[in-house]
Amino acid sequence: MTAYVVFTRERLRNSSDMEAYKPGARASFEGHEIQRLAAYGTCETLEGAPIEGAVILAFPTMEAAKSWYDSPAYAEARKHRFLGADYRAFITEGL
After folding, report:
1. pLDDT digits (tens, 9 = 90+) for 5-24
2. What count of Cα atoms within 13 Å lies in the side-chain half-sphere of residue 87?
3. Measured between alpha carbons, how far is residue 29 from residues 24, 39, 64 in Å?
4. First and final C-alpha spacing in the chain
5. How many Cβ atoms sit within 10 Å of the Cβ of residue 54?
6. How many C-beta atoms lie closer than 10 Å to residue 34's C-beta?
7. Sign (positive/negative) of CA torsion 11, 45, 38, 7?
8. Total structural domains within the chain
C-alpha cells in the first residue's frame, strides 16, 4: 500500500543550514523509489497554526518510506534540517 511522508515547515531558523540540507536530501533519494508530489508550492492553511511550506513524498510501502527516512544518507542530511528549521513530519498509508 502506498505510503506518504509529509513534512510541514513551521518556522525557518537558519537559512544557511537549510541550503546545506538540500543537496544531501536530494542525494538521499538515490536507490529509493520516491515520487515527489509537492515541494514548497503555494500553500493555504485551512486549520491550525499556519505553516511556511510543505513537502509530500510517495513511497510504494510504509517500509520503503521508513527505509529512506532511516537511511544513513538521509540521517546525515536531516541534521541540517534540524538545525535550520522547525518541522513536523509523519508517514501515513494511503487507501
Report:
1. 999 999 999 999 999 999 99
2. 19
3. 9, 14, 11
4. 7
5. 18
6. 17
7. positive
8. 1
Nearest Cα neighbor of 65 from 9, 1, 5 is 5
> Structural domain of residue 20, as residue ranges?
3-93
pTM metric for this prediction: 0.93
Q: Please spell the DSSP secondary structure of 8-58, one letter per residue.
A: EEEEE--HHHHHHHHHHHHHTTTTS--EEEEES------SSS--SEEEEEE
Identify the CATH number of the domain in which residue 22 sits. Answer: 3.30.70.100
Residue 22 Ramachandran class (φ > 0 left, ψ -120 to 50 alpha, else beta): alpha
Within 10 Å of residue 59's Cβ, how many Cβ atoms? 22
pLDDT (tens digit per residue) in 40-80: 999 999 999 999 999 999 999 999 999 999 999 999 999 99
Cα–Cα nearest to 56, from 28, 27, 91, 11: 91
